[in-house]
Amino acid sequence: xxxxxxxxxxxxxxxxxxxxxxxxxxxxxxxxxxxxxxxxxxxxxxxxxxxxxxxxxxxxxxxxxxxxxxxxxxxxxxxxxxxxxxxxxxxxxxxxxxxxxxxxxxxxxxxxxxxxxxxxxxxxxxxxxxxxxxxxxxxxxxxxxxxxxxxxxxxxxxxxxxxxxxxxxxxxxxxxxxxxxxxxxxxxxxxxxxxxxxxxxxxxxxxxxxxxxxxxxxxxxxxxxxxxxxxxxxxxxxxxxxxxxxxxxxxxxxxxxxxxxxxxxxxxxxxxxxx
Length: 275
What we know:
The structure is a single chain. With 275 residues, the protein is of the alpha+beta class. The chain has helices spanning 2-19, 52-61, 67-80, 85-94, 98-116, 180-188, 216-219, 225-246, and strands at 122-123, 126-135, 141-148, 163-167, 170-171, 193-200, 203-210, 212-213. The longest helix is centred in the C-terminal third of the chain and has 22 residues, at 225-246. The radius of gyration is 27 Å and the shape is elongated. The model is unreliable at 17-39 and 269-275 (pLDDT under 50).
């Protein structure tokens, strides 16, 4: 059973390391990124502490012999979020189980990035023509949809050929640029709701959409250095924050110099003469 568990954990470690968002460093910026700014000064990021008994039981389950139980505990702790951070920090410093430590770091890193970056940028998931601002019937400006990306908020709600003429009852201004519409969407944040006035087949439909978070692949896209910089800055912020709250709880004891002498073996010696 222990051998089976060890093999399973090695596979998990390999998959977890492969899944880390290392693509953000695929291309280094021409100039060093500005120092990371940390707005969150507490370990719980301002959230209330979660039920201690429940969190303790889930942390113990992270070391289960059963992979499914470890996965379930990881997902449950992720769902609890920052309210479990204090207990996770204590467990991280106390355990010698490498997989448990990896799981704790993964939980905390994803939640930190979610609450400090991902959730603040709403994402609709549509594609535009190269110059997306078009004149619509009646003289209003419109966003012409050319595609809908799978798995995004726009699926089943918007179609290629739709023309968006208003967001929450407000028409796009005459001097709008192609960047104005995505900015409006981003500012709503993940989970935000927007009502789009859409021209489809000659009729105007009101389409309500619940926005999602911008997928990680867009932050790691080298064609969008601004998003890459935002992700890199928050990863820097996480590293500083992590060392502050999840680092060693006490300073390591100083190592005293040793006065013992050791005789090092000489390779190839066969006798007193060294031959």
